[in-house]
Amino acid sequence: MSIANNLQDFNSKVPNTTTLVAVSKTKPNQAILEAYNAGQRIFGENKIQEMVDKHAALPKDIEWHMIGHLQRNKVKYMASFVSLIHGVDSFKTLKEINKQALKHDRSINCLLQVKIATEDTKFGLEFQDVSALLTSSDYKELTNVNVIGLMGMASFTDDLKQVRNEFKTLKTLFDNLKSTQPQFNTLSMGMSSDYEIAIEEGSTMIRVGSAIFGARTYA
Ligand SMILES: *Cc1c(COP(=O)(O)O)cnc(C)c1O
Fold it and tell me: Which residues lie below 8 Å from residue 89, measured CB to CB, with a gap of 6+?
């Protein structure tokens, strides 16, 4: 199957209320262009430098999403163009994004990454920290970030019931926060292995890499 075929297949399966982020990390510009020529405009990367290089080389109407863990000292390199940052897991990082957004006189859309997996290798805020952050007075002073929702990664397991439960708890948190956060419109959950379950559990944005571009040689 070609990248274009894979994308077509995806777009026919996925409801049009679900946004597809094509995760192009480690993949060459040629592969991204192939997806671009098939109509895909949203791409996800997990390393800031790699995304900066690809942004410079590729068509300017691509929307770049940062899906990886953030190194605060590198936020400045993507602040002029990044369209959504999925992996915000501390107030300090949010504050740095705000600072860099201000320099470019723009507002940057962000998602708070919530820890839903049982493994402790996954980054993310604990449930109670999410609402604490959103209601803090420090947060209210950040004029140039727009937190539009949540992101989560399920456990790496064959137990699909567990995966479903983890997505369910994130969706519940999302719905609860919505009452005080009317700007919440994005729930980013689901990857190649579990996007179908994620969509059933209310995901509005899936991040799919290998099912579109083929297996990666490194993570
Ligand atoms: C790599 C990555 C994905 C995509 O993974 P696939 O299994 O290739 O679909 C999704 N989300 C994050 C945060 C990733 O780092």
Answer: 69, 70, 112, 113, 123, 124, 125
CA of 208 to the centre of ligand 1 (A): 6
Atom of ligand 1 nearest to the CA of 86: 13
Q: How far is the CA of 141 from the centre of ligand 1 (A)?
A: 32
Instruction: Report the alpha-carbon distance of residue 184 to residue 200 in Å, rounded.
Output: 19
Structure tokens at 97: 């994004």
The Cα 172–Cα 176 span in angstroms is 6
Q: Which amino acid is at 156?
A: F
In sequence order, the β-bridge partners of residue 110 are: 85, 147
Strand locations in the chain (E):
19-23, 42-45, 63-66, 84-88, 108-114, 145-152, 186-189, 205-208
pLDDT of res. 216: 87
Those residues with Cβ within 8 angstroms of residue 182's Cβ, 6 or more apart along the chain or in another chain? none
Using the structure block, give the residue that is written with the tokens 């705000």: 98
Residues 6+ apart with CB under 8 A from 33: 58
Q: In the chain, which stretches have pLDDT less than 50?
A: none
Q: Which atom of ligand 1 is nearest to the CA of 192?
A: 9
Strand partners, 84: 65
30-77 pLDDT, tens per residue? 999 999 999 999 999 999 999 999 999 999 999 999 999 999 999 999
Contact 63, 42 (CB under 8 A): yes
